[in-house]
Amino acid sequence: MIGSLDARLPDGPIENAWTDHKFDLRLVNPNNKRRFTVIVVGTGLAGASAAASLGELGYRVKAFTYHDSPRRAHSIAAQGGINAAKNYKNDGDSVYRLFYDTIKGGDYRSREANVYRLAETSLAIIDQCVAAGVPFAREYGGLLDNRSFGGAQVSRTFYARGQTGQQLLLGAYSALMRQVAAGTVALHTRAEMLDLVVAEDRAVGIATRDLLTGEISAHAGDAVILATGGYSNVYYLSTNAMMCNVTAAWRAHRRGALFANPCYTQIHPTCIPAGDDFQSKLTLMSESLRNDGRIWVPRALDDTRAPADIPEAARDYYLEERYAAFGNLVPRDVASRNAKTVVDAGRGVGPLRNGVYLDFSGVLERDGAEVVRAKYGNLFDMYQRITGEDPYRVPMRIYPAVHYTMGGLWVDYNLMSNVPGLFVAGEANFSDHGANRLGASALMQGLADGYFIVPYTVGDYLAGRLGKEGPGTDHPAFADTVSDVNERTARWPAARGSRTVDWFHRELGQIVWDHCGMSRNAAGLQKALSEIPALRQEFHADVCVPGSAATLNQSLEKAGRVDDFFELAELLARDALEREESCGGHFREEHQDAEGEARRDDERFTHVAAWEWAGPGAEPIRHREELTFSAVTPTTRSYK
Amino acid sequence: MSTTNNGALSVHLRVWRQDGPGDAGRFETYDVGDISSDASFLEMLDVLNERLTLEGREPITFESDCREGICGTCGLMINGRAHGPQKGTATCQLHMREFSDGDVITVEPWRAGSFEVIRDLAVDRTDLDRIIAAGGYISVNTGAAPDANLVPVPKEASESAFDAAACIGCGACVAACPNSAAQLFTAAKVQHLNLLPQGQPERWARTEAMVETMEQFFGSCTNHGECEEACPKEISIDFIAWTNRDYVRAKLKNRKLAGQV
Ligand SMILES: Cc1cc2nc3c(=O)[nH]c(=O)nc-3n(C[C@H](O)[C@H](O)[C@H](O)COP(=O)(O)OP(=O)(O)OC[C@H]3O[C@@H](n4cnc5c(N)ncnc54)[C@H](O)[C@@H]3O)c2cc1C
Ligand code: SF4
Ligand code: FES
Q1: Which CATH number among 3.40.720.10, 3.40.50.880, 3.90.550.10, 3.50.50.60 corresponds to the domain A37-264+406-476?
Q2: Which residue from A450, A525, A626, A632 could staple onto A46, CB 3.0 to 4.6 Å apart?
Q3: Cβ of B125 under 8 Å from any chain A Cβ?
Q4: Which ipTM score applies to this complex?
């Protein structure tokens, strides 16, 4: 049973909080570091940077990824950029402003102290990345370039063409491989964590499956760091990579770690709409396109004319009309919901009537194709490759898609979960984005956690364990956990039902999208809460998983992941139902003002909801962590 | 460039099936009908795999993750070409509109001595990571970095470094090379770092270590140029020439540093 939720936030003004806290954190002397083994699961931005930094400090690190190489993590796909309050543009940016924008962007549902630390740490991240050889965009004088991103009023986004995530991950990956070569990090690829080992009320290790041989094995560590990414794929279709999943976090949850704010999910407004029923994932088109493209749909229902044949008067530039100040640059949640409204009303465009136009004809006419090509050439090519349509001639079609999950495992200020010794970094934790994440801030958070926070706070935890190392894998908890995993895995090759894992995943995704997507209401959420367990039962009874458990078996891998998505989906719907307010990415139709804008309920919901697993089929327990604001005053987000 | 065509097509596939590294392997043929020309090549394989599963047969193992051409996980030999017929395009970005109704399409794994076939179309590319571990980094511990704008980098240098850094580590260059050489992959990483001021202190040691590790695991380059043709990121073969030049100088420099010349 969990007592009160103590985030262990430092006292005093937030400006000095992290510096003072770092001074208070206990240290492990260099000779003692090598006595400790730290397990890092996940080698995306957060995991690779954490593993490399801990290795440099002298800990014995074991890093795990289900990929064949750390360079393949989903972080590689991030396009737009990474924020930092460097104020290189002299346009009035500061740590405080980045903090303020992020707190406001999160709709006042995140912790002040965490967000301030994130803004503060952003400075060192850029220094570190540049020193490691990340080729950020530069100006002619050779200094770093910045751009404004996601509607920010200052230019604080560092970028590397449209491939910022790739270049940042390659930087962290190379730091990691340097430690692998130095022998401080043992790298386990194609190794999927399928359970957390808890003994003496602490995280003491993990159980993994070797994806090539099927062997389940146990690994002991004095601390375990999960950096296993987000859970957007619970919706089946999302912009996340195909293999992204919640299993590591979910298994830790079932072993006692609290899961916070699962209903905070982010929908990105500019993705390419699904083309057919076999669509396997959705592709993001960078948000920067909204700087020059104009969004519209036909005013009339069932207007199937080609876009060029629809005269100005018959077009509805709905964002420009409704939000005079921000127009097409309103935040992601606002742009997404408005697109849904017009498509639901039957005014969608494209063969499946499931998109809105993003039209570049104005800027093409004004600046010419060459200027547009220089800015967006890559994106236009990508769009054409996928859709077969030429955006220089016909407007792009876009529609919102699930993109990021703000919820995740609950952690305290030290990024440690309520299970001592279990730390969570990157998108896998719930820490810094509240109910909505601003563009270019996930990369920042992943690297802040991995390079600059976890290496200190894990040290503090380990300092308290000096002389008490272990237990090793001979502790019975390891054998028990391995046997649980074996049992779970063994059920799949016996499953010879009539439907594929993907079929169930698609059906589950549809339920979650319909009822826990861009807008939610009590009746829909209750429906989801009855449909999800029913479908899960059917999944267990009727799924077909060919092949054996003793070889590379992709259907079997997916079956385990989808099984965990089912349980998460239920929690997501429950969390959304209990949160009777609209905030950030969580829009409850019952809670909007006369103009259809989100209405928060600060009195009842200025808190984090952190859920405790109560056993299979049992109602989970909702704990609260109250949020207090002293540096900023919560206001209504308005973009009119 | 083809235009939108939502028409459906049917194709005949010859797919390499191999149960494991020890298995001899064989081609199997499948007809796949009614595929939208807007579907991606991998979605076409997804559809086939769903069908095989329901027929009680084992689906074809092939790897992919981002399906956006950036993670480097995918990679198939399609009609004898690494990543298929469309230039500058990774397998996952290839769409069925590049094919015609009735086409016979042969699908094989990367074939290269150093890439062992794990199962069907999946291969083991970990030797590429060994080349990176040998020196594909700048030695800067976390926290030791100076202010990012302390060292200006000429825009042109930064752009060339980026052109090299765009490599996604897919291994198509190795698969396309008659000698299974990994020169383009290695040169891309060597030059990404060697072109930047930050990469200078370790330039010679890095070049030597990475090139020699590459030679340990991969074949040698005889300038066929197939790698550049196959590369989904269109990485220029010039980087190989620059790396060869750096390697010769590295040999000299390192001996000098060691007091041998
Ligand atoms: C298309 C796209 C564009 C984006 N663009 C931006 C942007 O411009 N700016 C920005 O700030 N953010 C962006 N984001 C968000 C950002 O990319 C991610 O939030 C961030 O990269 C997540 O990093 P991570 O290290 O937490 O996780 P990931 O990169 O997802 O890494 C997860 C790691 O965990 C491993 N793993 C997971 N489960 C297990 C398991 N059970 N066992 C073993 N290993 C496991 C995986 O192998 C992988 O190594 C974008 C996201 C998407 C989808
Ligand atoms: S050089 Fe090109 S073909 Fe070779 S691994 Fe890199 S991206 Fe792939
Ligand atoms: S699946 Fe990522 S590059 Fe093709």
Answers
A1: 3.50.50.60
A2: A450
A3: yes
A4: 0.96
